[in-house]
Write a structure and sequence with these properties.
Chain A has 477 residues and is of the alpha/beta class. Chain A is built from 14 helices and 12 strands. Classes of the chains: A alpha/beta (477), B alpha/beta (450), C alpha+beta (129).
Chain lengths: 477, 450, 129
């Protein structure tokens, strides 16, 4: 069943909303300023409701089922978070209201700044960045400005592991610095020898995702951060995988100087089909003055107000940050408490190790000899079916009612399937997922067309992405 | 409460399968001295207690229907039809991920395609992307796109002084590592003539706002003239626009703009103390390969069914990495969906009506304030915001307006333009009533000696 | 994997080929390269007159899943570009040594051809990959 475009449902004269009559004397609007036409859809409210409800039914979501996307942390989004964000005192609050009339919001933001600082081991936190990549850009600009102000004008290089997410080198380039790739060693750690070889007076810093995108905790973490500091560089922590060590370790105490947190991953705020998120950034005392601003600070007494950090890199977004998302993260942290936060990591890591143990005899897991953290990388390679690729296995998983894992990332593992269950999945769900993958492995050798032609049961089947890229039809009509 | 379904029995079973005695053993790679630190956080609360605490906190914020507000300056209080929230709160939209598996994400993808189409039509441009974080970052991304179009060989960017001050600040933050000359906004007096004269062969783009931050609408032909000048220098014209105003006014796409971007919050998204908002971003088809942000495109599936997929991904960070046109990954998908539902519900007539109501309310307010001794309204054609020169510092007036009259006054412009002492930016929208405006006017009169 | 080759061309380590046609050199990417890229959707051809410098990237070829730099195998000025690729980028995949050519170049230093691999050397090189 295909849902027409809203423009195809449009009929001249239909209206979806009633507006009040004008209660003031009207003022002439000069016709030279007015547009002649606007081709928006003309539909009734029932058309709007039906169209979008039917569209929603074409989507898979966390509330539909298991979503083991590695490094995305698709955990359950507590509905209490949404209820909190919808409170009119938050939802209808204008960002430019005088602090005296927004103390509730400022109190919440200040508490969240403090709590995230405590959780990550950081001295100061900004809640302004909108997303992880936004936080990365923020962090690199902070490192850049720090070096600039200390006269280190030669420090123009950022070391980035080859397992890093694409946003890492992209953010580096946006900040006007050069990304230098550092390979991983056979155990999946940063290659220390290659790191040392690249640590010279041109290095501004290292970007580290820990655990990394192989799902492995950096075995030489303290040595790595020490080496970078010794060479005069700073360490940026990409917090995309923080769910693995939430309440288990504080990156700020282990040599990370600046780190972003993905509130829409670790802190359970919903993904929204691709946003909005929030990418809070924490820093050490030495870097606190460089945070983007304004940030919330406590003035005399119990009042909260805005302050621009003394050496701030500047504003990174309009207004204060994605407050609606911050409320959700705050509610989550308050519902979990310190023990609950630690339980998140313990269960996330146990769940991932359980899946790894059950799958690694059938699907190769390059680092299966190591304890994984909250995720692990398997390969969509089956000895008995050399024609089958990770893509085929993923598409066939859809027929079994599961969202596929992350495909073809990290780049350093061919036919990668990055699997992250998160802590909010039950053992039955995980067993069903394993069973599906084991069945698919059998199908791969006996009925490979089932995989090559998959998915069969989804609202649409495999899409012609080449046609999309060649024709570039990006608007209707 | 951690939302963890597994019980101790489940965990025991899993630990056995993994071959360890306890979950703590799984963290053996974490340096021992840093393992399991104490978290100095308040103990867990139940859902009931958390919501109760947050309800109290939310009540410490002034606002809501009982409090008339005349604040605008980049974030606007508009009426959100109930069908909008009903649709976007559906968990199939809210708890879905980025549609990397298009076969099971057609809801998100088609909605984004429809959003892109609506934004293109609203702005009069050929194409739109799937959104940036907000109006400020959309402006910065537009500038970066202009730099990419010029293949990084042009280093000069011209900003009108009446582009939103926060947007100009974000442009500077984003580009601080790029060795650019950013000029034009040193003096508030710089109009289109000055900006045109500042434009030369080393200029990548000129950025103006419509209506501008001070509420004023430029005559379409003055923008067209500026566009011609900008193009003759080989630069791009970027116009930051108000999407509600575009329901009424000539769109910048008809004036020669190369990019039309701005804040889409007003399209059905709640004020929410500043976010999450919506950076809409529309541009010329020629520039698609240099653009940033996700783009949904139409195609067919294996059975020939029309369907939608993110396309041109090779510009993006996950493929192009350090050569990407931007680093953006997560965007504002749900807010874009919100805008699409809002625009569908309103339709062209509804949106025009909202814009006209904003116009009439604001012009009525201005006409009443003009008569007040001690206050002057700045001249010039405006949409729904205008500048009022006050007899006292705006901070004092607003303080008294709130304490005594329960009204949230307009924005204190001295914070942005130091020479605009005692100047307030006043905003009215379709939710502002005549009674509220009359109350404001009485309040302003009372505040003459604040 | 059986790759196609052109016995009249010389090859770079980055999988571009050069073939003399009269006074001009014709440049393209090899079958190995197009296979790795998979379906080409766009070729960002340089303007006529652009000066190419050996081993410097001069354009980008995009497929659905990658966007790869093309490095000039020789130095010189672009005299013409394959306009057919605008509407039919898939020619790069179908006929990489023929109809899928990218640009024609007026060489500034014919000696540069000597440092490129001949057919046998390139075949051996591809086997090691």
């Amino acid at each position: 069943m295909r849902e027409p475009l809203i423009f195809e449902i449009s009929r001249k004269g239909r209206e979806g909303v009633s507006l009040p009559r004008c209660d003031v004397p009207q003022t002439q609007i000069p016709s030279s300023l007015c547009r002649s036409e606007l081709a928006l859809p003309e539909v009734s409210e029932v058309d709007v409701a039906r169209h979008y409800v039917r569209l929603s039914q074409l989507n898979y979501s966390v509330d539909t089922g298991f979503y083991p996307l590695g490094s995305c942390t698709m955990k359950y989004n507590p509905k209490a978070n949404d209820a909190a964000a919808r409170l009119p005192g938050f939802a209808e609050l204008h960002p430019l209201q005088d602090p005296s009339t927004s103390q509730g919001a400022l109190t919440l933001m200040h508490s969240l700044q403090t709590m995230i600082g405590e959780i990550g081991g950081f001295h100061a936190v900004s809640l302004q960045p909108s997303a992880g990549a936004h936080g990365e850009l923020t962090g690199i600009l902070i490192m850049r400005k720090y070096h600039d102000e200390h006269g280190h004008t030669r420090r123009t290089r950022i070391l980035v592991p080859d397992s890093a997410h694409g946003t890492n080198p992209a953010s580096t380039a946006m900040a006007g610095l050069e990304a230098v790739e550092i390979p991983s060693d056979a155990r999946g750690n940063i290659d220390i020898a290659r790191l040392k070889a690249n640590l010279d007076e041109r290095v501004a810093g290292l970007m580290l995702t820990n655990p990394n995108t192989l799902g492995l905790f950096e075995e030489n973490l303290l040595e790595v951060t020490h080496l970078v500091h010794e060479a005069g560089g700073l360490v940026y922590g990409d917090g995309a995988n923080f769910n693995a060590i939430l309440g288990v370790a504080k990156p700020g105490t282990m040599g990370i100087d600046v780190m972003h947190f993905n509130l829409h991953k670790t802190f359970s705020t919903p993904h929204g089909g691709g946003g909005p998120g929030a990418g809070a950034v924490g820093v050490t005392k030495e870097l606190a003055d460089y945070l983007p601003g304004p940030i919330v600070e406590q003035e005399g007494g119990k009042r909260f107000g805005w302050r621009m950090p003394a050496r701030s890199i500047g504003r990174i977004k309009s207004f204060h940050g994605n407050f609606g998302i911050l409320v959700r993260a705050y509610a989550y942290i308050r519902m979990l408490g310190p023990d609950g936060l630690r339980a998140v990591a313990e269960n996330a890591v146990l769940n991932a190790n359980y899946l790894q143990a059950r799958l690694k005899d059938v699907y190769p897991v390059p680092h299966g000899d190591r304890t994984c953290m909250h995720e692990f990388v398997a390969q969509g390679k089956l000895a008995a079916a050399p024609d089958i690729r990770a893509l085929d296995i993923s598409k066939r998983l859809i027929d079994y009612g599961f969202h596929p894992p992350t495909n073809y990332f990290p780049l350093i593992v061919p036919e990668a399937l990055m699997i992250e269950p998160t802590e909010t999945e039950s053992v039955e769900t995980m067993d069903a997922f394993v069973d599906a993958l084991l069945k698919i492995a059998k199908e791969a050798s006996h009925e490979p067309e089932l995989l090559h032609e998959a998915p069969h049961c989804s609202p649409v089947r495999r899409l012609d992405e080449v046609k999309a890229a060649r024709e570039l039809k990006v608007t209707a009509g | 409460m951690s939302f963890i379904p597994n019980t101790d029995a489940d965990r025991a079973h899993m630990l056995e399968a993994v071959g360890v005695a306890s979950t703590a053993e799984l963290f053996h790679d974490v340096p021992k001295e840093h393992r399991f630190p104490r978290l100095d956080l308040p103990t867990a609360l139940s859902e009931q207690e958390v919501l109760s605490e947050l309800e109290e906190l939310s009540r410490l914020n002034a606002g809501g229907p009982q409090t008339p507000s005349f604040l605008g300056a980049g974030a606007y209080h508009h009426f959100v039809p109930a069908v909008v929230d009903a649709v976007v709160s559906r968990s199939e939209f809210a708890t879905a991920y980025t549609p990397y598996q298009p076969e099971i994400s057609q809801g998100t993808l088609q909605a984004i395609f429809e959003y892109q189409s609506m934004i293109a039509r609203l702005t009069g441009m050929e194409v739109s992307n799937a959104s940036h974080y907000d109006g400020a970052t959309a402006t910065a991304e537009a500038v970066i796109m202009a730099l990419n179009v010029a293949q990084k060989e042009k280093k000069r960017v011209i900003l009108s002084p009446t582009v939103h001050p926060q947007y100009r600040a974000v442009v500077r933050t984003y580009t601080q590592g790029m060795g650019l000359t950013i000029t034009g906004d040193e003096s508030r007096a710089n109009g289109f003539d000055q900006l045109a004269s500042l434009c030369d062969e080393s200029t990548a783009c000129v950025v103006v706002q419509y209506p501008d931050f001070l509420g004023r609408i430029a005559e379409p032909r003055t923008i067209s003239t500026l566009a011609d000048r900008v193009h003759s220098c080989g630069a791009l014209l970027i116009v930051i626009a108000n999407p509600i105003a575009l329901g009424l006014l000539v769109p910048p796409g008809e004036m020669g703009a190369d990019v039309v971007a701005g804040e889409g919050q007003a399209l059905g998204n709640h004020l929410s103390f500043g976010g999450p908002y919506l950076g809409f971003f529309a541009f010329r088809r020629d520039h698609m390969r240099r653009s940033s942000g996700r783009i949904a495109g139409e195609t067919v599936d294996h059975d020939g069914r029309r369907s939608y997929v993110f396309t041109l991904s090779t510009r993006e960070q996950h493929i192009r990495r350090e050569k990407a046109t931007s680093n953006i990954c997560t965007n504002q998908s749900l807010n874009a969906l919100t805008a699409a539902v809002y625009l569908s519900a309103l339709g062209p007539r509804g949106l025009r009506q909202v814009a006209e109501l904003c116009w009439h309310k604001a012009h009525y307010a201005a006409s009443q304030i003009v008569g007040l001794a001690g206050y002057t309204v700045e001249p010039g054609e405006f949409f729904h915001e205008f500048v009022v020169r006050c007899p006292r510092p705006v901070g004092r007036i607003n303080g008294r307006l709130y304490e005594k009259h329960g009204i949230v006054g307009g924005y204190d412009l001295s914070q942005e333009y130091p020479e605009m002492k005692d100047a307030m930016l006043l905003c009215c929208t379709e939710v502002t009533t005549k009674a509220q405006i009359d109350k404001l006017v009485r309040g302003l009169e009372d505040c003459r000696h604040a | 994997m059986e790759y196609r080759f052109d016995d009249k061309a010389r090859y770079s380590k980055t999988h571009e080929w050069v073939r003399m046609d009269g006074e001009e050199a014709v440049v393209g990417i090899t079958d190995y390269a197009q296979n790795k890229l998979s379906d080409v959707v766009f070729t960002d051809l340089p303007v006529v007159g652009k000066e190419l410098k050996k081993e410097t990237a001069f354009m980008v070829i995009e497929s659905v899943k990658a966007a790869e730099d093309v490095f000039a195998p020789v130095s010189g000025a672009v005299t013409s570009r394959n306009e057919k690729l605008v509407k039919a980028p898939e020619l790069v995949n179908k006929d990489p040594f023929g109809d899928g050519w990218l640009v024609r170049v007026r060489l500034s230093n014919a000696k540069e051809l000597d440092s490129l691999m001949d057919l046998a050397a390139y075949k051996k090189f591809v086997e090691t990959l």
